[in-house]
Amino acid sequence: MNRFRYGEYDDGPDPLAPPYDVRAAVDEMGRDIMGGADPMRALRDLLRRGTQDVRGLDDMLRDVRRRREQVRSRGRLDGTLEEARALLDRALGQERAELFPDPSDDARLREAELDSLPQDTSAAVRRLSDYRWRSQAARQSFDELRDLLRREVLDTRFQGMKDALADSGPEDMQRVREMVDALNDMLEADDRGEHTQADFDRFMDSYGDMFPEEPTPRNLEELVDSLARRAAAAQRMMASLTPEQRAELQGLMEDAEAQSGMSQALERLSGALRARRPDLDWSGGERMEGEEGLGMGDATTAVQELADLAELDTALNQGYAGAGLDDVDEEAVRRALGRRAVDDLDRLRAVERELREQGYVEGSRNRLRLTPKAVRRLGETALREVFADSDASRPGGHADDAAGHSGEATGATRPWEFGDDEPLDVVRTLRNAIARGGSRPGGAVRMHPDDFEVAETERRDAAAVCLLVDLSYSMALRDLWGGAKQTAMALHSLVTTRFPQDAVQVIGFSDYARELPPNGLAELSWEPVQGTNLQHALLLAGRHLDRHSDFEPIVLVVTDGEPTAHLQRDGSAAFAWPPSSETTAATLAEVDRMTRRGASLNVFLLADDPRLERFVDEVARRNGGRVVRPDADRLGGYVVRDFLSRRRRAG
What we know:
Oligomer: single chain
Distance between the termini: 66 Å
Strand order of the largest sheet: 7-6-5-8-11-12
Structural class: alpha/beta
Strand content: 5-15%
Helix content: 40-55%
Protein name: VWA domain-containing protein
Radius of gyration: 40 Å
InterPro entries: VWF_A (IPR002035), vWFA_dom_sf (IPR036465)
Largest sheet: 6 strands, mixed
């Protein structure tokens, strides 16, 4: 007998977890796309803004820039030089205090030697390297100075070394020398192609405590990257000092390296790191502020952090060609902004990933396209927003979620066929299943597709719907384009989902007119050309009506300008401003043809122009249609209500 045990799943992501809901992200992108943005820019702007529950890249970028200002305000870069001068002055004062009571010539000679010391701190320290101190306190101060310099020099190369070598003895310095020699040997072996991961593991077993940074390097490449970044930061820290400060501190560093016996080893290491990472900035300076002087190690850490923040700023800004979220270093985000920012970055990546995996976008990063699924979603959203903006208090002005293609039930039923959307007759369906022997013990019924029956309904008349949308440059200048685009998508979604038997066509017109495919509506943009060729648009609409001559014709026109172009006999567009009499006559001729077809034109006028108003009034007089002067911000509501009103009369 098989036995099974069940417990909490802990082997990775939950395979039964629902997919990340990106519909709200699609809607957010849709608002930008309605305003004229292409899908790539809309996605980039979405990631910059973030969503309701996820901070965007711009929020992280502001945090990074605040962090940079905080780092800059830590203090000055010459803290070690200042501390070295103070220790030297203390040692000299203690020695003079010891010599002053002594009347001997030796004491006077020593005082003269101290008086002749150079003003340069590094030169004075070198002169005093062989000096035999009378004062024990002075010797201790001078030894403290040298110990400080040794630890600071090593801390500029190996972060944390200053604290690790506090109160250290000769054996500790010997171990540091051995570590540097072993590191150089490992780098040279790697140059010869002889290095292995086992060699690195042995090195870290011996000296890993000298590299306390997080995360711990896992291989030689990561260790080189960490050390090279710090070495470059040390160079930039030195470059940020004044020439006088730089020369003085450089002298102190060289003396400290010589005293530690590691001058050549450290020089070899510097050369190897620079050769491996020439791409780093080894010469630029940094501006630091604040009152407190920073030690060389702390100053190097600050400069290194500023460099990391500058790289993170560039990655988060996404202002270069081919930029993407993969360019953002998650570990750099964690160091700079904390765990929460990493979680937000992961969620932004999930949004971008799920948009593709759930089938809303496709194509490369630089040529992103919306899928039909996304276009349908944007149309549904546009329709919802149009209804939300409609006047709910107006009779019949509410949204009706019921399908609009079925009439009253006739009382008859018929077998269900694929594609049927008439209401299901539940009683007859269950009776068919039971009669076929689909009943099971306990009252269960097993259904089969052949069991289903639907209730027949009266067939409503179908409509041939034409929406003519002005694409001319003036629509963009007047900030009308977003509303017109939303109107087109909302009407198309309404007709295709609630009146699927209707034939809908959206036509855009500027100097020429063209049919706009459903999948192209979302990415449609205004056209920077001269001409408003309503005549060509009416010609195309007439062909659509002729192909569906037994359908109820519904023609809606959205425009902000009078016709300024028409088609000539050779098919080219003739443009004239002010409009020519030929353009007006050709356009009105197409209006008359629409009238003879029995198609009334309802014109939605988006501009206050006396000549335009005279023209559309003439259209209404000749055709019998209406002229509507809607609020541009609520254009969609006017158009959809007008369509529904005419559709109800037609049904």
